[in-house]
Amino acid sequence: MLRIRLKRTGKSNSASYRVVVAERSAHPQSEGKENLGHYNPTTDPKQIDLKKERIEYWLNEGAQPSNTVHNLLIEEGIIEGDKRKAVAVGDEEN
Asked: First and final CA of the chain: distance in angstroms?
């Protein structure tokens, strides 16, 4: 199954991310099939540069976004819906 997810780049204390399409089982630092943009949360304001047409193509091909990417796509207006909880801490689901 294909997944649209973040790939970490940047320096130790200054992370930035690439938005890539990759197999779900692939290593997190693998190159992936295609680079769909980048996201830099350390700047003020946050920098988000996404290839909207290519993201829509991959979504139509069946790729599923990770929770964080799903929330970014909602913020950018590429998809509609409710945001997902990106990080689960402890036993909050119980």
From this structure: 28
Written as six digits, the tokens of 16 are 């930035």
- Give the Cα separation of 50 and 10 in Å (integer): 18
Q: Which amino acid is at 32?
A: G
How far apart CA 62 and CA 65 sit, in angstroms, is 10
DSSP one-letter code for 46: P
- Residues 6 or more apart whose CB falls under 8 angstroms from that of 70 comprise 79, 81, 83, 84
> What would the pLDDT profile of 30-51 be if each residue is shown by its tens digit?
777 899 999 999 988 999 999 9
Q: Residue 57: what are its φ and ψ, rounded to 5°?
A: -60, -50
Tell me how far apart the alpha carbons of residues 83 and 9 are, in angstroms, rounded to a whole number: 25
Q: Alpha-carbon distance 73 to 6, whole Å?
A: 12
pTM: 0.83
Q: What are the structure tokens assigned to 91, written together?
A: 């036993």
